[in-house]
Specification:
mainly alpha, MetI-like fold, two-stranded antiparallel sheet, globular
């Protein structure tokens, strides 16, 4: 039996054109699979954003055609509306209180779960449950009952209802957000499990105690995860609505102490029917969130540690 040698050129010859899918056909298949997302992004996100931007330069009351007024909504917002500035201050106060407390509690619980030998899955699910339930109006109403006159907090501490006190009402709203620490907790736990045990062993050999190991090993190695959680929770905090709406019964009281930005936006747009003004508020909020996020990314260069400088 004789064998015929196949030339080297034939071995590396390109496949016949009939067996190769043209690039244009491959791109077409990709666009077919992407089309639901692209259509949804255009119809449900980009188009409403464009309409909202247009309405922000108009006087629109939801019932009559919008009337072009240029920058009047923005000038009125910044120079003639004291409630607008109260909502800004209230929102900033809420963000400063809620975000650090939530992240601190999430990290503490994640550290406790990391050291558990048994029941970790159960406790992880139990601590995550408030993140699924806390955004609902029903839980917010329960929270209002707990902090109302004659509620659980009043019976335990005898301080009266927090929701009726201007100095404590916003704290009650912030505590509802802090209670929903499950999502950042799970992310922290995943990050903690990725820290090599050899680093802790080396620190222990050098005489570092638990606190020094936390500051010198855990915090630097966990800083990318901390930064990720910080950005996400800050963005969500600026958009808080349901807790403040439920705790204040939709009024932002007492004395506008819980009048967060999105509540005032809702009031202007759907209660007072000043949709053009509300659209202008929405775009200012978008710009502010973008600026705050950019600042966080900029400052992260000085405190976020990456194992490889090429990962920055």
């Amino acid at each position: 039996m004789t064998t015929t040698a196949i030339p080297a050129e034939a071995q590396h010859a390109p496949a016949p054109a009939a067996k190769r899918r043209p690039r244009r056909e491959r791109e077409g298949a990709a666009w077919v699979f992407l089309s639901p997302w692209v259509l949804g992004a255009i119809v449900l996100t980009l188009l409403p954003m464009a309409v909202s931007l247009y309405l922000s330069f108009t006087d629109y009351d939801l019932f009559n055609p919008p009337q072009w007024v240029g920058l009047r909504n923005y000038t009125q917002m910044f120079t003639e509306d004291p409630r607008y500035w109260r909502s800004v201050v209230t929102t900033l106060t809420y963000v400063v209180i809620a975000v650090p407390l939530q992240l601190a509690l999430a990290l503490v619980v994640a550290l406790a779960l990391k050291g558990m030998k048994r029941g970790k899955a159960f406790y992880r699910s139990a601590f995550y449950a408030p993140s699924l339930l806390g955004a609902s109006m029903s839980i917010a109403l329960v929270w209002r009952a707990i902090f109302n006159d004659g509620g659980t907090v009043d019976h335990l501490f005898g301080t009266g209802g927090w929701v009726n006190k201007p100095g404590l009402a916003l704290l009650a709203v912030a505590l509802l957000t802090v209670w929903q620490f499950g999502a950042p907790m799970v992310i922290f736990l995943a990050g903690l499990q990725q820290i090599p045990a050899e680093l802790y062993e080396a620190a222990a050999v050098d005489g570092a105690g638990k606190w020094r190991q936390f500051l010198s090993v855990t915090v630097p190695m966990l800083s990318p995860v901390l930064f990720f959680n910080l950005v996400l929770q800050t963005i969500q905090a600026f958009q808080v609505f349901t807790p403040a709406f439920a705790v204040s019964a939709g009024k932002g009281g007492p004395a506008d102490s819980t009048l967060v930005y999105t509540m005032y936006l809702y009031d202007r747009g759907f209660v007072a029917s000043h949709m053009g003004y509300a659209s202008a508020m929405a775009w200012v909020l978008l710009v502010v969130i973008g600026v705050v996020t950019a600042v966080l990314f900029r400052t992260s260069r000085s405190w976020v540690f990456y194992a490889s400088e090429g990962d920055r």
